[in-house]
Specification:
This protein has four helices and five strands. A five-stranded mixed beta sheet has the order 1-2-3-4-5, with helices on both faces. The protein is an alpha+beta fold and 143 residues long.
Length: 143
C-alpha cells in the first residue's frame, strides 16, 4: 500500500455492522456507557445522521458517524485501522464526513475530543480545525 490509496465511502449496510464495531473496539473508541450497536441503529434512523464506512477492496478500514442538528454538524467514532496509519485514511474519512454535511447545506462542523488525547488534537489541527472558546456541558439522559 502507498499514501495514495483511495478509500471508497458509503453509508453503512446491515452486513457491515459487526466489522465496524470491531474497528471501533480496535481503535479504543467504545466505552461501557455507550452501546455501539445502539449508537449505529440510532444514527441510521433518520435523515440527519448516518455512519459512513471507508472500504479498501473488501475490507472496512475506516468509518465515521456523522450528523447535524440543522445548523451544525458533528462527527463521532472517527476510526481508521491502527495497522494502516500513515496512509491518509484519517484525512479521507474527515473529508467524507465534511462532504456528507456540505451536501445537506450544513456549514460548520463541531468536534469533541478528549482533553488527554494530544495526538488526535494535533491531527485535527493539521486539518485546520481550531479550538473555540466554548464550554461543553452535558447531562446523561439515560439510566
Amino acid at each position: 500500500m502507498s499514501d495514495g490509496d483511495e478509500l471508497g465511502f458509503r453509508p453503512i449496510a446491515d452486513g457491515d455492522i459487526e466489522e465496524v464495531v470491531a474497528l471501533w473496539r480496535k481503535c479504543g473508541l467504545t466505552r461501557p456507557h455507550n452501546d455501539p450497536y445502539r449508537d449505529i441503529a440510532f444514527a441510521r434512523e433518520g435523515p440527519a445522521s448516518d455512519v459512513l464506512v471507508g472500504r479498501l477492496g473488501d475490507e472496512i478500514v475506516a468509518s465515521v458517524m456523522v450528523g447535524h442538528d440543522g445548523h451544525r454538524g458533528v462527527v463521532y467514532y472517527v476510526s481508521c485501522d491502527p495497522d494502516r496509519q500513515g496512509h491518509n485514511f484519517g484525512r479521507q474519512t474527515m473529508a467524507a464526513a465534511e462532504a456528507w454535511l456540505k451536501s445537506r447545506s450544513v456549514w460548520k462542523l463541531n468536534l469533541v475530543i478528549r482533553d488527554d488525547n494530544a495526538r488526535i488534537r494535533g491531527f485535527y489541527e493539521a486539518l485546520d480545525y481550531e479550538v473555540e472558546p466554548r464550554i461543553l456541558m452535558a447531562r446523561r439522559l439515560d439510566d
